[in-house]
Amino acid sequence: MLFEGFRPSVSYSVRSVTIVADEIETRMAKRLRARRLELGLSLGDLAELSGVSKAMIAKVEAGRSSPTAGVIGRLCAGLGITMSALMASVETEDAAQLVAADQPRWHDRSTGLERVAVSPRTGFSAVEIARLRLEPGAVVDYPSPPTVAYAQHIVGVAGRVRFTIGASQFVIEAGDCVAARIDRPTRFEVLGRRPAEYVVVVEREGR
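-> structure tokens emitted (207 positions)
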């Protein structure tokens, strides 16, 4: 189900979806803190790099706040990692399969963004794949460019989404693909009355 028909699994109850979302947010919180400490950054340093307040960063790292996609995006930009890397749960040096049921899934309660990290983490590939779904009228802003630029390919699956990077805009429909170097603020906006579904392929530079 990589390129068409992405829908939240109807086999999940509301309770189980909440549990999965909570587990993903806990994992992301731990990895955000670990990455910050790995880089030797204080809360103040990261606040300056990301534009997110020290108080909010502390709440996110402690699991006391459910961050929006925009906040997570700014923190990832400040830490020089992608959201897919933040969500990933498997890493191997050989070959790996990440079955659909085990793919980390995150839901932004503020914007309605649903993001699934499709690709397993490996030691031999710098590519990450995620599939995303946005409800009609949804807008997701990533105002802070990453500290380390990366290439991103966006493949339309269903609906229409306007992708903005810097001063450039692209309307992506099913089957369309936009390639961009992510070194400026970006924005995703759903057009029309249908949900937008798309696949994002990221080419990272290093780990």
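The two ends are 27 Å apart (CA to CA).
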